[in-house]
Amino acid sequence: MGGGGQQTESSEPAKCDGVGPGGGRGGSAVYTWEEVQKHCHRGDQWLVIDRKVYNITQWAKRHPGGIRVISHFAGEDATEAFVAFHPDPNFVRKFLKPLLIGELAPTEPSQDHGKNTALVQDFRALRHRVESEGLLRARPLFFSLYLGHILLLEALALGLLWVWGSSWSLTLLCSLMLATSQAQASWLQHDFGHLSVCKKSSWNHVLQKFVIGHLKGASANWWNHRHFQHHAKPNVFSKDPDVNSLHVFVLGDKQPVEYGIKKLKYMPYHHQHQYFFLIGPPLLIPVYFHIQILRTMFLRQDWVDLAWSMSFYLRIFCCYYPFFGFFGSVALISFVRFLESHWFVWVTQMNHLPMEMDHERHQDWLTMQLSATCNIEQSTFNDWFSGHLNFQIEHHLFPTMPRHNYHLVAPLVRALCEKHGVPYQVKTLQKGITDVVRSLKKSGDLWLDAYLHK
């Protein structure tokens, strides 16, 4: 992380609605929420953390988590997101100091946009309890065993071929084992990515590079910049890349109506719940993600991630060329990607796609995350199948929490939601999967109705 940026003319501390005297650049000025909220544009960005006002206009492009994720909070209170994303906030605060331009006026509330103060305070108390009980601390043994489980699957797949040869049935079995190891590696690098925020020399960061690069052939930086946006503003159009469907699908209740009223028909959306099976699960990883990863690494000149990624393909061809040759090895990894993609799509979308999707509503952290996520019932199989992302609610509220502690904090989160009337949804695995299709059909029907009658 780097130092502070230069202030633009529009961000000079000044009298703000008569609240206080103009201050210098040392952060002595006071501001109202109305003044802060004006600075929410690409070339003029302020945000608030713990009532302190920061000008991030020039520095945002150097933000290690990516310019977009921090820019999503421009003109807003970013306190909850700041705490949620940074395992060691005190380590990060020293980089904020040069960006400080003032603070909120004493007469201003701590929450912006009329957020529920009691709910915000109760969630902060829960966060403090979680920290004090050590629930944000990872157990290295858990992740060591999980990594061993992945490596064992890969070793068994290769060992079977060396012992028994490459028959069709054995090749299919090995492909399933490799797809399983790839899916489980996805969840593991996901853990390391969240745990390594802001400390690039940490063991988490190195392990994420190894798992996503060497074991999966992808890019850690690509995933981090994309996934952190999803956590910052889940299911918010234009801010969550996971709901950017490139006009292939219409999602939620509002987007389909907007498309219908504007007579937009890039696809026959009233059939999207059917063509989803053809272009969703089969193609997301082997086509869309693969192209996007390569494009991102080259455009950003991310040669370190490219080297990690190439080491994956070198390993695959060294291991499987003796059995299948060059084109056979390409076919094998393509088939594995095809199988993994189905697994990945259903696990990630059953928690989010059937939930609320909308434009920015400036909700508090708890309400925003709960409206966009749901849980899948706990069981040994569900925990393993989803990489513990069946506890999606807890993961979104505490993204740096190691997965082995989700079940411990879940009762506390549910109690807090009941106290404040925030819906806490838990589904069976079957319902979670079928709701994906139902939500697509519902959205397609809304589009058709608006397209024909409005």
TrEMBL record:
It comes from Oncorhynchus kisutch (Coho salmon). One of its GO terms (biological process) is unsaturated fatty acid biosynthetic process. PANTHER family: ACYL-COA 6-DESATURASE (PTHR19353:SF12), FATTY ACID DESATURASE 2 (PTHR19353). The chain crosses the membrane at residues 141-164, 275-293, 313-336. Pathway: Lipid metabolism; polyunsaturated fatty acid biosynthesis. This is Fatty acid desaturase 2. Keywords: Fatty acid biosynthesis, Fatty acid metabolism, Lipid biosynthesis, Lipid metabolism, Membrane, Oxidoreductase, Transmembrane, Transmembrane helix. The keyword Transmembrane helix applies. It is found in: Membrane. Pfam families: Cyt-b5, FA_desaturase. GO terms for molecular function: oxidoreductase activity, acting on paired donors, with oxidation of a pair of donors resulting in the reduction of molecular oxygen to two molecules of water. PROSITE patterns: CYTOCHROME_B5_2. GO terms for cellular component: membrane. Residues 1-23 are annotated as: Disordered. It is a multi-pass membrane protein. InterPro entries: Cyt_B5-like_heme/steroid-bd (IPR001199), Cyt_B5-like_heme/steroid_sf (IPR036400), FA_desaturase_dom (IPR005804), Fatty_acid_desaturase (IPR012171). Belongs to the fatty acid desaturase type 1 family. Residues 28-105 form the Cytochrome b5 heme-binding domain.
